[in-house]
From TrEMBL:
Residues 116-491 form the Molybdopterin oxidoreductase domain. GO terms for biological process: cellular respiration. It comes from the Bacteria. Keywords: 4Fe-4S, Iron, Iron-sulfur, Metal-binding, Molybdenum, Oxidoreductase. The gene is fdhF. This is Formate dehydrogenase H. GO terms for cellular component: membrane; oxidoreductase complex.
Length: 764
């Protein structure tokens, strides 16, 4: 592996030479603190972050341990908190000074740097400005609009941050009103997981719990970047490596956090050169090449099975598990046997010996864990990526026992929980009969809209109203320019947010911007300060109490806003006690418990269980809620997850997150761990590809869509930057690259946009 790294240095590709963690991450926090100028309360908030009785970080969804570190936060968690507790304010005076058209010319970074929104605002078309309004005026007007349209033409979107309490109320509001159009950010993220894992294991979420990480012998990492996106996960990884667990990574980019880690919370490690090497094997698979790589691993597993059985009568496979618990083994074996190493090398971009070495780690390990992120989910055949990984794990019975399992690393801090309590466009995932009984109404039974269907419905004119509970929908979706043009035909747009972003500048005929409390702020209601709850990536539920003084006295909490909208829209129903719920969120938890008694029994008593309470997972118990009643081996449709064919001049573009952003929130311009500083307008390319394409380092180029639909999509002004990537794969930043992603370019099964291998041409 060393040789490849040296090659990078020789070729002069940019790469950070330090470790993940260490002093660099301390510097990252300090820079954010200086920029946001937080009050002392913000620093106090950091001390209580991710602890029982404290508040749960608004950054990633990684679990919060029972015995937290003194500072159970990371560089990016600290940035997220400081971002929320900034002393900057985006006031009615600010809006009086700037037209919305003018603000459309601002960068994402500059919009959010205006600070926290302080006041409910209505968009005034005559002056092209936001003007202040009262909460009652906003609720009444929105209720009036919603009552005037067919409920099925309204969309209730949510970004994955809102608490379980808010999410439950929001989903119930949608159903009482009359639709299942409840897409959330998961529809652009891990929906591939929710669909594919559910299909083959019967459970839509990961099967691991934290203690599995103390027991496993090997961890296989596919397309997830913990150094940037879930840094607290580096602690259990570092501990696992120290006790001899092997980590094997498949990623087109040599991500720093998966190479070496220095614990910034360990004084000893900070003062010595010691850093833990993380991956023992780092395979730079081609974008979209994971299906082939895993096929190769399985080929080697089958070869070793035959060899060991012949020589020693010992199985490599878990034959009892396969026999008792799975379906479809023979077809899978035939498919793997029928695939040649030549095809595997060609499609994965890896050499046979490296894939065999990875498979040997898998064979030797008694207990293995698979972790993955957007590198598997955001592909046209993303579902096949995940099912292929499940195939590999079923071969050795690595699902449903201690120390083993599949562990997708989720994104937003409550994105998994929102689905758990009813935010879903898929009615079959929601206990509609129970809701019907509990609230005395007939819930809609038809399928709601996914994110992609929402966009199609806006383009066709079928969608009339959009409510966004957080997020930055228009910046996060594909086909950005066409969608912005279509958006203005909407009758009603409502955005509930903490900070100004681009989605607030593209407005329907009636448009409101409603500011809410952040999770770190005190949420005072008539019965006192309220706690809320979240579910992490490992299905543990945690309570969270904000203590910071709210950014403005005119803010409302998310539950209060949802209740305000619902009351203004729906006829009164004595069984739905909006006012009581807002007064005491414990009553919402009682309602959740009534709807989901198995998972949420004794909810209020368990809210502050240290380490959270586990809501259970059927696949972990080897109860397979699938059509076959077993865990299913399945066959991939292709050997790669790329939705088109290779051809001359067509590149596979990965849209990436830097270390200085949270999704569309850009904290700054330093992608420290990749050594890219000062700009996000870059085109990352292998140096040999730069030469072969006749380009030069530093040259400014553009990208154009090379999708087979022939539509024109362009992004310009990108600096050619040498970077150690597999040949044929190029990289750029999300969300700047989003205008290049066709709306039709999504995982076939789950409709998750395929942002990790977008077909493009380079335009000089
Ligand atoms: N600081 C910070 N934290 C975050 C976020 C953030 O933006 N900033 N976002 C949050 C959210 S919502 C999410 S979903 C997660 C996202 O976290 P991740 O799942 O880590 O998502 P990405 O950073 O988009 O990309 C993941 C990795 O996939 C690799 N990759 C790309 N294509 C392929 C491929 O074909 N195969 C393989 N094997 N790898 C590939 C990329 O090189 C990259 O390292 O993080 C969450 N946490
Ligand atoms: N090309 C490409 N596109 C992608 C991705 C990619 O990798 N590549 N990743 C996809 C993924 S994984 C995701 S999850 C989506 C993200 O899509 P979203 O979740 O829609 O976007 P965010 O950038 O997380 O939303 C940021 C905004 O949320 C608001 N906000 C922050 N905190 C709060 C709060 O507590 N309450 C409320 N009400 N609002 C708040 C702020 O106003 C902020 O501007 O993007 C997707 N789009
Ligand atoms: Mo995400």
């Amino acid at each position: 592996m060393g040789t490849e790294r040296d090659k990078g240095a020789e070729q002069g590709t940019v790469h950070y030479s330090g470790t993940e963690g260490g002093w660099g991450s301390v510097r990252g926090i300090v820079e954010t603190a200086l920029r946001e100028r937080p009050k002392p309360a913000a620093l106090d908030a950091l001390r209580r972050q991710n602890k029982p009785g404290g508040f749960m970080c608004v950054s990633c969804a990684w679990t919060k341990p029972k015995h937290p570190h003194t500072f159970e936060f990371c560089e990016n968690g600290a940035k997220a908190t400081l971002w929320e507790l900034t002393s900057r304010r985006c006031t009615p005076e600010f809006f009086a000074e700037h037209t919305v058209t003018e603000l459309k010319g601002w960068k994402d970074y500059d919009l959010e740097q205006t600070g926290r929104l302080t006041h409910p605002m209505r968009y005034d078309h005559a002056t092209d400005k936001y003007v202040p309004c009262s909460w009652n005026e906003a609720f009444d007007a929105i209720g009036r609009e919603l009552k005037a349209i067919d409920p099925k033409s309204a969309i209730f979107y949510s970004s994955g941050r809102a608490s379980l309490e808010t999410s439950y109320m929001y989903a119930l509001f949608a159903r009482l009103y009359g639709h299942n159009n409840l897409p959330d950010s998961s529809n652009m993220c891990h929906e591939t997981t929710s669909v594919a894992l559910k299909d083959v294991t019967g459970s839509p979420v990961g099967t691991c719990i934290l203690s599995d990480f103390d027991l496993c012998d090997a961890i296989f990492f596919f397309g997830q970047n913990p150094g940037t996106n879930s840094p607290r996960l580096l602690h259990p990884l570092q501990e696992a490596v120290k006790r001899g667990c092997k980590i094997v990574t498949f990623n087109p980019i040599r991500e720093k956090g998966l190479e070496v880690f220095k614990n910034p919370q360990s004084p000893k490690e900070m003062l010595t050169p010691a850093a833990t090497p993380i991956s023992c094997l780092y395979l730079q698979v081609k974008t979209g090449g994971d299906i082939a790589a895993i096929t190769g691993m399985m080929k080697h597993v089958f070869a070793k099975e035959a060899e060991r059985w012949a020589a020693e009568k010992i199985h490599v496979l878990d034959v009892d598990f396969i026999e008792q618990h799975t379906d479809g083994f023979d077809a899978l074996k035939a498919h793997v046997d029928g695939t040649s190493w030549e095809q595997i090398e060609q499609e994965s971009g890896l050499v046979r010996a490296d894939i065999e070495a990875a498979a040997d780690v898998y064979i030797e390990a008694k207990r293995s864990i698979a972790m993955y992120g957007m590198g598997l989910t955001q592909h046209v055949h993303g579902s096949d990526n995940i099912k292929q990984l499940v195939n590999l794990f079923l071969l050795k019975g690595n699902i449903g026992r201690d120390g083993a399992g599949i562990s997708p690393v989720r994104g937003h801090s409550n994105v998994q929980g929102q689905r758990t309590v009813g935010i879903s466009e898929k009615p079959e995932l929601v206990p509609l009969d129970r809701l019907a009984e509990q609230y005395g109404f007939e819930p809609p039974r038809d399928e709601g809209r996914t994110t992609v269907h929402v966009c199609e419905g806006i383009q066709s004119g079928e969608v009339k109203a959009f409510i966004g509970l957080g997020g930055n929908f228009l910046r996060a979706i594909p086909e950005q320019e066409r969608m912005e043009a279509a958006w203005t035909t909407l009758r009603l747009t409502v955005q509930i947010a903490t900070k100004l972003n681009r989605s607030h500048l593209i407005n329907g005929q009636v448009a409101y911007l409603l500011p809410c409390l952040g999770r770190s702020e005190e949420d005072m209601q008539v019965t006192g300060a309220q706690a809320v709850t979240m579910e992490d990536s490992l299905s543990c539920i945690h309570g969270s109490i904000g203590r910071a003084t709210p950014a403005s006295p005119d803010l409302k909490s998310e539950p209060a806003i949802v209740a305000g909208l619902a009351k203004a829209t729906l006829p009164p129903n004595p069984k739905v006690r909006w006012d009581d719920w807002v007064a005491d969120y414990g009553l919402v938890r009682d309602a959740i418990e009534e709807t989901y008694p198995e998972q949420f029994h004794d909810f209020n008593k368990r809210v502050f269980t240290p380490g959270g309470f586990y809501r259970g997972n059927s696949a972990r118990e080897r109860v397979w809620k699938t059509k076959s009643g077993k865990a299913d081996f399945t066959l991939p449709k292709k050997l790669n997850s790329w939705g088109t064919e290779d051809k001359d001049g067509r590149w596979r573009l990965m849209t990436l997150r830097s270390n200085d952003q949270f999704n569309t929130t850009i904290y700054g311009y330093s992608d420290r761990l990749r050594g890219i500083e000062g700009t996000r307008d870059v085109l990352l390319m292998n140096p040999d590809d730069i030469a072969a394409a006749g380009l030069k380092q530093g040259q400014i180029v553009g990208l154009a869509s090379d999708a087979d639909d022939g539509m024109d999509r362009q992004v310009g002004g990108l600096t050619v930057t040498p970077f150690l990537l597999p040949r044929g794969c190029i990289g750029g930043y999300y969300p700047e690259m989003n205008p290049l992603v066709p709306l039709s370019w999504h995982d076939e099964e789950s409709k998750t946009p395929a942002g990790k291998s977008v077909p493009v041409r380079i335009v000089v």
